[in-house]
């Protein structure tokens, strides 16, 4: 496996944020980028602009909502869209592809809205379905990265105020349990593995000057199996990409792996 930098970014509309995305790609030059919340169909995805920036795209889009993609410097291979589990689900939330020998999955987990609402139940079911997807398609000994907006802050360190967030969607015990069950497949949170005590966030509400006050949560994650974790050299959050005019409310997250 060659050295690889993998990033994930909920762009909150790829067309509205296209100039920002292209500039960020040129400045940071990751090898693979998992995008979430495209808010466009496959046909509407700006492939030409992305290709001009040096990236091939595998896209699983949807009109107005959701949508995921994998961008890579080499063409993504063996692309699979959705969970392919026979469940009727119109949400475009998962796409997988192989890039230079690594299986990469871009994931946009449901938000959950209000606790115990139908959307919350759907979220927990989504996590269970994704775990079954892994169990039926993969083994922990394979080089596998799942990257995206997970809409779960796993630990107290991952929210700006654990007391204020107690019982709130993104931070409930049921959501955190679903997250742990997924990771029990054999996935490691790359950022937390390198920085067990560091408090960094990836999402800040547009309202109430949350970004300026750094009142955020860490809900965007790069997860990896053992073969990648042993090559992990760095991970982080690109907070600079959240600044400026009309940003996404998420910052990109990334992990870097040495050749091996």
TrEMBL record:
Keywords: Hydrolase, Magnesium, Manganese, Metal-binding. Its cofactor is Mg(2+); Mn(2+). This is Exodeoxyribonuclease III. The record marks 250 as: Interaction with DNA substrate. The record marks 220 as: Important for catalytic activity. Mg(2+) binds at residues 10, 37, 149, 151, 249-250. The lineage of its organism: Bacteria, Pseudomonadati, Myxococcota, Myxococcia, Myxococcales. It comes from the Bacteria. The keyword Metal-binding applies. It comes from Cystobacter fuscus (strain ATCC 25194 / DSM 2262 / NBRC 100088 / M29). Residues 8-250 form the Endonuclease/exonuclease/phosphatase domain. CDD domains: ExoIII-like_AP-endo (cd09086). The record marks 151 as: Transition state stabilizer. The active site is at 108, 149 (proton donor/acceptor), 250 (proton acceptor). The keyword Hydrolase applies. GO terms for molecular function: DNA binding; double-stranded DNA 3'-5' DNA exonuclease activity; endonuclease activity; metal ion binding. Probably binds two magnesium or manganese ions per subunit. Belongs to the DNA repair enzymes AP/ExoA family. One of its GO terms (biological process) is DNA repair.
